[in-house]
C-alpha cells in the first residue's frame, strides 16, 4: 500500500494516506521512539512523505519530534542528524484492566507501551458482574482524574480469566469468577458510553501478546504463555499468529485431563491440570493457609530445603508442559502468574518430568522461561489490545476520543 510519493486521486489517495499514518504510528508505538530516517527505510516512502505524515500525527498530538544533540544519534548515519519521532504517552493513552480472582488491577498505559499509573483493589467476592464492574468503573474514574487536561483516552482493554471473544464482547465462561455468558462490553458501555472502544481478551492470550510484542518472545514465532492463578490458561502463538480456535476459545490448557483421581475442578470435571498446579494447589504444597493466599509469594522465597509437596507439584507442572511441547512444538514456553515463583524453586523437577514426557525432537528446542514483563505481562497485553483502534485508524479514533474523559467523569 506504500504510495512512494506518487500522486493518487480522490478517496484512493486518502485511503493510502490513512493507511500510512496508521503504519507509521504503529512503528513509533512498538519501538517507543524511532528516527525519521529509520521510518523512511522501514516504510519504503520518501523523506518528504514521511515528514508530512509525522507532521500530521504531531498536529493530532500523537507524536513529538525532537532533534538529537550532535553526535548523540548513531541511528542517523552520515550527514545531518535525523529527527527523532517519539510517542506522546501522557497525551494518548489507554486504560487496561486485569480482572483477577482475588485482585483487580487497573493501569493507565501511554502510547509506546509506557505504564503511567496503576491501581489495585480486592475483587468483590460476590459473583454478580454488576458489582465487580461498579468497582472497576470507580477505579477507572479515580485514575482518569489524574490524566492531563486535553489528553485522549483511545481505548479500554480488559483481561478476563476465562473464555471470551472480543468480537461478541461476551464472557462465555469464567468459572473462577462464577460467570457464564456475561455481556461485559455492553455493561461497560452502560457505564462509560460508547465513545471509547472496549476490547476483551483472555488473560493468557494477552500475556502471550505482550511477551511476543515486547518481552521474552520478541523474536519467536511459536510460543506458549501460561497464566497461573486459581485457574491456569494458555496463550498460544503459532507461526507468529495467535491461535484462536474455530470460535476464539482455544488455549484452555488448564482444563486438560490430568489426574482422574484428583479433586473436582471449578469447571465441573475431576482432576483438571489447573487443580494440580494452580495457586490453591501451590498454597497447599507450601503450607500457606487459604486466608493468607494474597501473600502466597512470601511462602515461595528461596531458602534451605524445598517442601516435597512443592517438588511433586513441580513434577505435575513438568509432565503437563511435556504434553504441550508434544502438541505445539513451541520454541518457548513462558511461565506467568504464580509459576514465576514456583519454577525457580523446583526447576530441576519440572525439567526432568518434561524430558520424561515430551518426545525428544520437540523437547530439544523448547526453552522454559519466565516473562520479561514480570507481573505486568497480562495488563500490558490488555493495553496492547486497547490500542487496536488508534493503530488502525489514528485520525478517526483520536477525533472520537475528544471529550471522552469528561463524558466518563460526568
Ligand atoms: Zn477444569
In words, what does this structure look like?
It is built from 15 helices and 16 strands. The radius of gyration is 23 Å and the shape is globular. The protein folds into 3 domains: 78 residues, Winged helix-like DNA-binding domain superfamily/Winged helix DNA-binding domain (Arc Repressor Mutant, subunit A, Orthogonal Bundle), CATH 1.10.10; 147 residues, 2-Layer Sandwich (Nucleotidyltransferase, domain 5), CATH 3.30.420; 153 residues, Nucleotidyltransferase, domain 5 (2-Layer Sandwich). It is an alpha/beta fold. The longest helix has 22 residues. Helices cover 41% and strands 20% of the residues. The chain has a 5-stranded mixed sheet with strand order 6-5-4-7-11, sandwiched between helices. Strands 14-13-12-15-16 form a 5-stranded mixed sheet, sandwiched between helices. The two termini are 41 Å apart. Helix 4 crosses helix 5 and helix 6 packs across helix 12. The N terminus is likely disordered. The structure holds zinc ion. The site of zinc ion (ZN) has 5 residues, from loops.
**Basic shape:** globular
Largest sheet report: 5 strands, mixed
Cofactors, ions, other ligands: zinc ion
Radius of gyration: 23 Å
CATH superfamily of the largest domain: ATPase, nucleotide binding domain
CATH names the topology of the largest domain as: Nucleotidyltransferase, domain 5
Helix segment count?
A: 15
Tally of distinct domains: 3
Q: How does the helix and strand content classify structurally?
A: alpha/beta
State the CATH class of the largest domain.
Answer: Alpha Beta
How much of the sequence lies in strands comes to: 15-25%
Helix content: 40-55%
Outline the low-pLDDT stretches. 1-8
Amino acid at each position: 500500500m506504500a504510495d512512494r510519493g506518487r500522486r493518487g486521486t480522490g478517496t484512493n489517495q486518502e485511503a493510502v494516506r490513512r493507511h500510512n499514518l496508521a503504519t507509521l504510528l504503529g512503528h513509533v508505538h512498538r519501538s517507543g521512539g524511532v528516527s525519521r530516517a529509520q521510518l523512511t527505510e522501514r516504510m519504503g516512502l520518501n523523506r518528504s512523505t514521511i515528514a508530512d505524515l509525522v507532521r500530521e500525527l504531531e498536529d493530532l498530538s500523537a507524536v513529538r519530534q525532537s532533534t538529537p544533540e550532535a553526535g548523540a544519534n548513531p541511528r542517523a548515519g552520515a550527514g545531518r542528524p535525523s529527527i527523532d519521532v517519539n510517542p506522546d504517552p501522557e497525551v494518548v493513552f489507554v486504560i487496561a484492566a486485569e480482572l483477577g480472582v482475588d485482585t483487580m488491577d487497573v493501569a493507565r498505559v501511554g502510547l509506546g507501551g509506557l505504564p503511567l499509573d496503576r491501581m489495585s483493589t480486592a475483587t468483590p467476592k460476590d459473583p454478580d458482574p454488576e458489582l465487580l464492574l461498579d468497582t472497576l468503573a470507580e477505579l477507572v474514574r479515580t485514575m482518569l482524574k489524574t490524566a492531563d487536561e486535553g489528553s485522549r483516552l483511545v481505548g479500554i482493554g480488559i483481561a478476563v480469566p476465562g473464555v471470551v471473544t472480543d468480537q461478541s464482547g461476551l464472557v462465555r465462561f469464567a468459572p473462577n469468577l462464577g460467570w457464564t455468558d456475561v455481556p461485559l462490553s455492553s455493561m461497560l458501555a452502560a457505564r462509560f458510553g460508547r465513545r471509547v472502544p472496549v476490547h476483551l481478551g483472555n488473560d493468557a492470550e494477552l500475556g502471550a501478546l505482550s511477551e511476543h510484542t515486547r518481552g521474552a518472545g520478541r523474536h519467536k514465532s511459536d510460543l506458549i504463555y501460561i497464566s497461573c492463578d486459581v485457574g491456569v490458561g494458555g496463550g498460544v502463538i503459532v507461526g507468529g499468529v495467535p491461535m484462536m480456535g474455530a470460535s476464539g476459545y482455544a488455549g484452555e490448557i488448564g482444563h486438560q485431563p490430568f489426574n482422574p483421581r484428583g479433586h473436582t475442578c471449578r469447571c465441573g470435571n475431576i482432576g483438571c491440570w489447573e487443580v494440580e498446579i494452580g495457586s490453591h494447589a501451590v498454597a497447599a504444597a507450601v503450607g500457606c493457609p487459604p486466608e493468607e493466599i494474597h501473600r502466597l509469594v512470601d511462602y515461595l522465597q528461596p531458602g534451605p530445603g524445598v517442601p516435597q509437596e512443592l517438588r511433586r507439584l513441580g513434577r505435575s507442572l513438568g509432565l503437563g508442559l511435556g504434553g504441550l511441547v508434544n502438541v505445539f512444538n513451541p520454541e518457548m514456553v513462558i511461565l506467568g502468574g504464580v509459576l514465576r515463583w514456583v519454577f525457580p524453586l523446583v526447576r530441576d523437577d519440572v525439567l526432568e518430568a518434561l524430558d520424561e514426557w515430551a518426545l525428544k525432537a520437540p523437547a530439544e528446542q523448547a526453552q522454559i522461561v519466565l516473562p520479561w514483563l514480570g507481573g505486568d505481562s497480562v495488563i500490558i497485553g490488555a493495553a496492547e489490545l486497547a490500542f487496536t483502534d488508534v493503530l488502525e485508524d489514528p485520525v478517526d479514533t483520536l477525533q472520537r476520543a475528544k471529550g471522552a474523559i469528561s463524558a466518563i467523569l460526568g
